[in-house]
Amino acid sequence: MSLVIRKMTLEDIPAVIDLDQRSFTLPWPERSFRFELADNPASRCWVAELNGKVVGMIVAWLLVDEVHVATLATHPDFRRQGVGTRLLAHTLQALLAEGAQSSFLEVRASNLAAQDMYRKFGYEATGRRRRYYRDNDEDAILMTLDVLNAERLSIGFTTSFTIANLIRRNLDTDSTFQNAEIFVASVAVGSMVAKATQEHVDREIDEVIDLWKSLKDIKKTA
Length: 222
Fold this sequence. Notes:
The protein is α+β, with helices and mostly antiparallel strands. It has seven helices and seven strands.
């Protein structure tokens, strides 16, 4: 599996709209994505593509030296596989290179999974926007990342799928292990935040491969 992060184009809009509608109860209209791509100089838009299929997208705004993550979504069939993590890491890394120093976003109060992912990047809840979402008057949690860290973002950008691919090269996995990437992506994100050194990540790669080899041995003898 080869995940590619690339700039969104106008040709991606139908796939992005479909993804957006599958992900949110308040999806953006087509004209909004067209505006972001063609007319908003602050906008930065990327998609995650897997085997030719758009499986994730992100729109962020660079406001002087601050990144506002406007929307981020992963196709329901590809969630919990590190796609959102890769998209966010890529975006923050690219905008850090453009001079960004911090970031903020809004997320539904009930979306605990998304909040957990953002915290792994260093975002912290700093406020609450009452009745922010029009469909059900749900509150939004304002989350802020005060300082962008290049080394952590670099590790997070490369690791999730790197580990998964290493496992595939080292192991002849079958259906029992087809979701290896889900497990190792979470390991990678934890490494990115808690241990911001490539040496630590390399050790964890070895440990995960050893774990999967052990699991295969157990399966063979069962």
